[in-house]
Write a structure and sequence with these properties.
two-stranded antiparallel ribbon; single chain; eight-stranded antiparallel β-barrel; mainly beta; about 60% strand; Porin; about 220 residues
């Protein structure tokens, strides 16, 4: 697990809650569902994309459907390359995640503020291309082969643990979360497991970790 991501996650939560302003509670104790949505964008990974080979743009929509339960949908697009151990591959495409989360701890004055945990199922439909795949040639010599671009799909499950807080007295919120992921199934090309899955990350291992730092708007 990346220590920098863990540090950034908890630092962001502490920073946000430290500067959150008080707000009159407009959410009734006996809560009844009314159409409500929070729409957010991951500004951290979008910003990092300008300086790295990984291009990742994603956002979410959530809706509070009971006192503590929120439905959640995420979507995005990722383009990345894999160059390691003689492999040279690229993948790009959209991904979609559906699930929900439960508010574990709430701000008494604004029940949208707090810490939460939940889970999602996710899938990606993408194109991948292998520019080089290491193989053993005649007499044990090492060489490589290439495979053309093809359409593939992958599916995984992920947990989500995070927190959100209102930004001063506005309708904007900061939402920070971590996402442990497990790759369940992938289609394969020429008996090769995918090196990269958009939305999941580098998939040379079944487990991966995601991190988002979102700016969201509630209406």
């Amino acid at each position: 697990m990346n220590r920098k991501l863990i540090f950034s996650f908890f630092f962001s939560c502490i920073f946000c809650f430290g500067f959150a302003q008080e707000k009159t509670d407009t959410l009734k104790t006996n809560w009844k569902y009314k159409p409500n949505f929070m729409v957010g964008m991951d500004v951290l990974n979008a910003g990092v994309s300008a300086f790295s080979e990984r291009k990742l743009f994603q956002g979410f929509v959530s809706s509070r459907i009971s006192k503590k339960i929120h439905a959640l949908a995420e979507a995005g697009f990722e383009k990345n390359i894999y160059q390691k151990n003689g492999y040279d591959a690229s993948a790009s495409g959209p991904f979609l995640k559906l699930g929900g989360f439960y508010m574990l701890a709430n701000d008494r004055e604004n029940e949208l503020n707090g810490f939460y945990g939940g889970g999602k199922i996710a899938g990606s439909f993408y194109s991948q291309e292998y520019f080089a795949v290491p193989v053993r040639g005649f007499g044990g010599s090492e060489t490589s082969v290439a495979f053309p671009s093809s359409s593939q799909s992958s599916y995984w499950i992920e947990a989500t643990v995070g927190g959100r807080v209102q930004l001063f007295d506005s309708a904007f919120y900061i939402d920070v979360n971590m996402q442990p992921r497990y790759l369940v199934y992938s289609t394969i090309q020429e008996e090769l497991q995918p090196m990269i899955v958009p939305g999941f990350g580098k998939s040379s291992a079944k487990f991966n970790m995601g991190f988002t730092w979102n700016i969201a708007y509630y209406f």
